[in-house]
Amino acid sequence: MIWPNLVEGDYTMNETYAIPDQIKNHPAWIRLENQQKWYSNNSSLNKKWFMAFKVIQIVLAAFIPVVALIEIPNAKFISAISGALIVILEAIQQLFQFSSLWVEYRSTTENLKHEKYLFLALSGPYRNLTQEDALFTLAARVEEHVSKEHAKWIDTSKKAISEKRS
Predict the structure, then answer these.
(1) 97-153 pLDDT, tens per residue?
(2) Given phi > 0 = left and psi -120 to 50 = alpha, else beta, which region is 19?
């Protein structure tokens, strides 16, 4: 075993592992930790923006028929502004792709987390590898996950641009 203190004992998913310094300070591990944190944070941020825009749109949409039914001055103006705001919010959501990025970033976060657990358990592609080989494999697989997400992002961006042109 290359890190016996990781595989001995009864660990839960929330427990902090005693990861040896030689692993914690390795560029592959640092990259994994940084990318997992970045994707998790940005997934949460995109989710918050998406949810906020949708809640505002729902409230505005529900507000329009209410304003139309009650007799208040400028009801048409208020309804028109509400409708315009719904369209603007949806356009911004489509432009920045909050929903898609939330899901894609969360997927990448979960893939990186899965990779981390495979590495820590010396399972899957890390089975029977030396520490050095396991770290090299970790580096390659982390970059593979990140590259896949980048390729999806580029593809999504190109599609969004071409849709806006047509």
Answers:
(1) 999 999 999 999 999 999 999 999 999 999 999 999 999 999 999 999 999 888 877
(2) beta
The two tokens of residue 135 are: 């770290």
Query: For residues 6 and 64, what is the distance between their CA atoms, to the nearest angstrom?
Result: 59
Q: Locate the domains of the chain by residue range.
A: 22-159
Separation CA 45–CA 37 (nearest Å): 12
Distance CA 90, CA 93 (A): 5
pTM recorded for the entire structure: 0.80
Residue type, 68: A
Nearest Cα to Cα of residue 116 among 23, 43, 51: 23
Q: Are 143 and 34 in contact (CB under 8 A)?
A: no
Those residues with Cβ within 8 angstroms of residue 143's Cβ, 6 or more apart along the chain or in another chain: 31
